[in-house]
Predict the 3D structure of the following.
Amino acid sequence: VLVGAVVVAAGSGARFGGPKQLCELGGRRIVDRAVDVARATCDAVVLVVPPDADWTVPDVHAVAGGATRSASVRAGLAALGPAIEIVVVHDAARPLADEALFDRVIAAVRDGADGAVPGVPIADTVKQVDAEGTVTGTIPRDALVAVQTPQAFRADVLRAAHASRPEGTDDAAVVEALGGRVVVVAGLADNFKITEPADLDRAGAVLARRAVAP
Amino acid sequence: VLVGAVVVAAGSGARFGGPKQLCELGGRRIVDRAVDVARATCDAVVLVVPPDADWTVPDVHAVAGGATRSASVRAGLAALGPAIEIVVVHDAARPLADEALFDRVIAAVRDGADGAVPGVPIADTVKQVDAEGTVTGTIPRDALVAVQTPQAFRADVLRAAHASRPEGTDDAAVVEALGGRVVVVAGLADNFKITEPADLDRAGAVLARRAVAP
């Protein structure tokens, strides 16, 4: 079964204050780290970059992203050949995903799921809030997971789900909307999304810990 | 208006592998940091410790906790005098809460809310999962916040809410169940809960950053 990866690095970094995918982390750019792990675990890799990108990653097929994250995923999907049977979508803003995590989501789809996502428990209590900032409810936490990327899917299911050009929070939501069966595999606490500069310090601390781990 | 703080440090640290409240963070114990900020912002502080605690914090009134977090909060509440009109409940496992955050939740209750909690956006997509690990739904993220402590309440409302000895995920849930109006104030991304040893590294990185901030 051929596995293709779509690494999404098309964000402008508006919240971050610049293109975070180019920030260095332990001597390598964030985007390079994301591509490395996709290359190590998938048969083909497509990198989705901003339309005006003046940077590349050597030896990786890059395509221009769209106006939204979903549009960028569709651009990546279109660049993967028809022989690909499983597609892994990964956000470059999560540079600490490891090969074992990619392998877990891929294995779950090989085993019959339409999609597989990494999930981690939510440490904080989660509440629903109205527009005025008043709490309207507390959500029972034991039924909730925070999900990450990489997310793996049957290629035909993901293509069908994206055919109507939907906008979803993540690709799994798009597949769920079509009635696909998405399963949760064990995520990685370290696999957080880089959203603000402080997250780079945190990621650096993780890399330092990994470097000395037995 | 007199403000009392209940600092809950009664956990056994089962998940952590020991009493995390005694771990050192930048040269001070986690519990000391939590007490420091409560002292700086509240008129009275009660510290809730494990029933078998062989440690103290100098010059703080300590009481023994109960079998659950809610029981421990009730033990702290019982030790605050009747003149206290606003109660702030804070988990010692969040040593990076700052004085401004305490002031924000207290101010919201002074301004008329029954309760006030710090909330931060949730970076990951949140999904509901069934017992088999299959996703059953994606929760619209813009209506959700992850809430932290310190949480402030009108003392009479919090005492009434705890009178039936309920168990809630947090104190706000207990007040919400009674119909109290709880509002969300801006939380602090750094104010995460120490739940595993890696979180100590992360907290250390935050302290280092604060030390050099302009």
